[in-house]
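We store sequence, tokenised fold; for instance:
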Amino acid sequence: MLKYTFQHVPSVGEKLEKHLWRNGILQWEDYLNSYEKIKLPYNIHRNMEIFLNKSIDALNNNDVLFFERFLPAKELWRIYSEFMNNCVFLDIETAGKNGRQDFISTISMYNGKNIKTYVKGINLDAFPRDIEKYSLIITYNGKLFDIPFILHTFKHLHLKSAHIDLRPILQRLHLKGGLKAIEKIVGIRRPKFLRKIDGYHAILLWEKYQKGDSRALDGLILYNQEDASNLHFLMHYAYNKLIALFPLPTEKLPLPQKPQLIKVDPSVYFEIRNPHHR
């Protein structure tokens, strides 16, 4: 979809982009090779000439930040198919119940092949090094929660990745609410023992782990890994729904299968949900 995109060019909005498509200017090279087919004001034509050549160079050099810088935020999803081979789906869990005293307990990252979880007190310090490998980060509500929390925790981390937040993209498709509710609507099914577990229970799992129960850490990691890995399906689902809205010869992405996640003892979830059960 990115090569069909013109809205990152200054002075080109949704209306002009559609006008270009209707007149057979579908991709960047179409304009550069046949711009005489459509008459534009000189300043817009000059912007097109400059930015489309820059776009070709940026794509050839895997410069995803160029597109993040100039694309409207609501259209950033268009970069996904070109950069998905170097992207990561990310989700954090936090612990603490005192607002500013909250801290990251775990971070899970899934690159479409392998999933890795970073745990406070074990390997969390390795996260800044590993996140730098990726040119694109995908989250759900990450602009407001995950990324600010990460930058607050790792004060010397300077992210050089573009960031797609799925929350506003899914809202555009009339999918609103929490991540779990949206998963259910689109057909993602979590294990039965996880379906009533939420962020509050994640805090309880961390506290239980801190008291010496290793099952609780595994339970927290699985919850975190479910959140991160399910973003992969949601990104492909949203991308396919959005490209279907355009009269363009774009190809749908295959809906991914869920990866193998950590094995857990499900009884730990029952215990945190029923603390007084004997």
Q: What stands out?
A: Residues 2-61 form one domain.
